[in-house]
Amino acid sequence: MPAEAAEPVMIPPDLWQRPEMLDALKKRNIGQVFRLIRQYAGVSQTRIGIAVNLSQGKVSEIMRGSAQVTALDVFERIADGLRMPDPARLALGLAPRSSGRTQIIEAASSRRAIPSRDGMPASQLLSVEGVVIGPRPTDDLWDVDLLTLAWVVGRLDARMDRRTMLLLAAGMTAETAASIADPWERLSRALRGPQMLDDDTIERLEARTIGFHRLEYVMPARAIYQGLTTHINELSTLLQSGPPERYRRRLAATAGEAATLASWIAWDLKQPAQSASFERVAALAAEESGHRVIQACTYAYRSYAVNGPEAVEHIRRAQQFLPAEGDDATRAWLLAREAEELASLGDGQAVELLQRAEEAHTRARPHRERAWTRFLDAGRMAAFQLSTYVRLGDEQHVTEAGQAALAALGQDEDQKRVSVVYADIAQAQLQIGDVTEGVAYARRALEAAQRTESTWGMQHLAKVEKALAARPDQAARELLGDIRATRRALGPSPA
User: Fold this and answer.
1) For residue 114, what is the DSSP state?
2) Is the dihedral of CA 436, 440, 445, 451 positive or negative?
3) What rounded mean pLDDT belongs to the chain?
4) Among 186, 289, 296, 460, which one has the highest count of C-beta atoms within 10 angstroms of its own C-beta?
5) For position 193, what pLDDT does the model report?
């Protein structure tokens, strides 16, 4: 091998900013990326292959178009090998490499605000540094374009922890947003008439719906509600424009998936009327698209707004919309929810339902089924087990499930799940008389619920709240006061 072949590939920084390069990255056309690198940087196929860990023959096939790159790990390897800057990585649909407190502070200090497309100043939607590394002055908020962020997160469509998602938001500067603004230019053209609608536009809208579902795991409801409703309005405009039938069904399906999330978020924001309206939209979209399972999601979300027999009724109604085969992630979710609610009624059938939920989960492909099923990983299933056994008062299984749920919680896990898991562990500890541990876990649960303004987390703290009311010790009284103050700050339950 010639000595120069092993040298690092040096690519002029301005090459990544050329329109043809950005277009190739956004289309994930790696052959065109390689051709541009060879044309403008004079890099041979051999050197490209060494940099990205591909053979020269494979690089040649990709450049000729006889081979395509489709695997996420290969895109990552290519981006790393070519030392792509973050704007180029974002255009390719990958997370930025920059990380850590320094990068967030540098991004925030640049003060280059992205104009909000949501009808609300973007600075009111999310403070990235405040969420990642704690509170900071209110006049130093980081502006985030929620529509663009949701599209990028949905396009990546791979498991990301909370910190990665928020670092992605922190990297969304005006410059990088401009480099991926093409989707919204395309959408604007599509809105002017059905003849401009194409598969690329539909795929981008579908990715954005997925992105909003994923952002809901890590961001407060109020932070994404306005952006989500803007997204739904754009879908509505396209549907009203009379698109071809092959596009209409896909638009209706992604509108229904977005509407189910909007209904859930409106409920979380104590807006029951808006929640009910979005439920009706989801039902219409389910009928129009032929995807009846959308209504299964709607009823599953509705089950969180009530308790006991009424919750079980909603869950069983949801199960009626499942197909005979397939949609196993949604099936597993509904079975686990039914187990939770039956356990709260003291019904031992909950254990059998948990087993059936696990069986369905082993068959499921949550990241490939529905926009709302991305959350259902092994950690969430462990959390369902913990919640069920806590409600049944099964101390032996609570210990096992609690250990599994804790093991599944990473340092940067989504805080809504954290609040639920810690609340359930706190309840279990209080049930067995370990007040010190119970108070400690309840405090962690409350902090996580406060951070995400999670009504869901506060619901799981309700029984902890009752147990604490009977405790005379100072730590329990202080925690009880903090829980009640948080509940007042979040407002009364919409249920």
Assistant:
1) P
2) positive
3) 77
4) 296
5) 46
